[in-house]
Design brief:
The protein is mainly beta and 137 residues long. It contains 1 helix and 13 strands, in the order E-E-E-E-E-E-E-E-E-E-E-E-E-H. Strand 1 and strand 2 form a beta hairpin.
Length: 137
């Protein structure tokens, strides 16, 4: 998780944490999520990940995004497909305040929600960008 730092946002001193910009095309602006930072499962068995130490993050296009409780966000992470080519893992989630004592420096978590991937009857928490694009053609 990247270091948070003081940042002036809308005329107020806030805290920002830089996230990765996309180096491959995405379907829309998304916020980077390190899928290695899984930390919990909620009562409905939804996966929860560490998300940010700060209130302001940037999306894949470099835009500042102000986080708040209950915010719906689209996220991505980099991975390699079966041909060892760069591909993006995609997911949708809800921002929640950190309730975990083990991570006192983290302010925000993300709870992933299932999404129906086009032309597929199954709902998934995480799906591949290449699968998503292939099904749209």
């Amino acid at each position: 998780m990247a270091q948070a730092y003081p940042y002036e946002y809308k005329g107020k001193q806030r805290t920002k944490q830089d996230k990765c910009s996309a180096f491959i095309p995405l379907d829309k602006a998304r916020i980077w999520l390190d899928f290695n930072e899984f930390c919990a499962i909620d009562e409905n068995k939804n996966p929860i990940y560490l998300f940010s130490q700060a209130d302001i993050v940037n999306d894949s296009e470099g835009n500042d995004i102000e986080l708040y409780e209950g915010m719906e966000v689209s996220v991505f992470d980099y991975d390699l497909d079966i041909s060892n080519k760069p591909d993006a893992l995609l997911a949708e989630g809800i921002i929640i305040k950190n309730f975990l004592e083990h991570y006192p420096n983290v302010k925000w978590l993300i709870r992933l929600v299932k999404k129906k991937v086009e032309d597929n009857s199954k709902e998934k928490y995480v799906y591949w960008m290449s699968d998503h694009l292939t099904k749209r053609k």
